[in-house]
Amino acid sequence: MTKKLSIILLVVILAACSARQHDAKMESSRGDYAGTNDNAESSIAADYDAAEEQARESKKVEMQQEDRMIIHRARLEVNVVDLEKTQQKIEKKVKDLGGYIVESNVYREDDTAKSANLIVRIPEEYFQQFLTAAEGEVADVLNRSVTGQDVTEQYIDLDSRLKSKLVVEERLLEFMEKATKTEDLLKISSDLSKVQEEIEVLKGQMKYIDNQVSFSTVNINMYESAVIIPDIDKSKLNTWDKTKKQFADSMNFLLTASSAMVVFLIGNIPVFLALILIGGLIYFIVRRGRRRE
Asked: Which tens digits make up the pLDDT trace of 240-270?
């Protein structure tokens, strides 16, 4: 009985020792990961700074050997003789040079004045050529403004930050492959998502600068002031109709006058007869008196 009790006690002690060792191992594992995580962040930060500095210096050397990155913009205010034809010629020139139209608007103030606004993007190598061609299509250049913005340093900074973020992304992916605990995977996954989001933002900013440098922007305001020449009002030039009307009016006047004359003569015959009789009587009396004298 004592022997069996001793064996049972020994088994219980061994089981307790085994459980204690397992718990200690788990605690050690947690402590090791925590330390590894802290070290990882320090290591990643160091790698990030080093990669960013190296990328910046490398890009500076590269940009010194090549042309600077300049964003060109131009604004033209011009007078034109025929707004529609001039706009069509300029738009055709844009397409011929490989550019594209961003915005096109036409405004009509009244019958004598109208204007248009045209915003176009032209490949950088044809920028000056397009300006010369556009000015050749107008009657008068009222205002001409050309600006250039050097974005070389800004692009270098974005490029170096992007390369550094890519290094961080690579290190986080390595830690993710080695992680064994769920909480570690979640932490690394969260950090990785933030880094990848920052990478996409940097890529978008660099793409925007590339586009602005590759294609110059030209804003053209065109004005047309036309002299309105009135059309001949043919409705007021009905010569034949007016001649016929005047002839009819004249005939009507003659007929009316003749009719009035006939009416006057015939209608007043009794009066005329009475006057003739009275006149004849007076003449007879006067003549008789003279004979007596």
From this structure: 777 878 888 888 888 888 888 888 888 888 8
Residues of the chain with pLDDT under 50: 1-36, 65
pTM value?
A: 0.57
Q: Give kind and range of the element (H or E) at residue 241.
A: helix 239-267
Whole-number Cα distances in Å, 260 to 197, 251, 257, 263: 109, 14, 5, 5
Residue 116 CA to residue 83 CA, distance in Å, equals: 8
Query: Which one-letter amino acid corresponds to residue 127?
Result: F
Beta strands in 8-162, from DSSP E residues, in sequence order: 70-79, 100-108, 113-123, 140-150
Q: Which amino acid is at 272?
A: F
Element of type H or E holding 221 = strand 215-225
Tell me which H or E stretch contains 63. Answer: helix 2-65
Measured CA to CA, the distance from residue 158 to residue 208 in angstroms comes to 12
d(CA 172, CA 176) in angstroms, rounded, equals 6
| Eight-state DSSP code of residue 27 | H
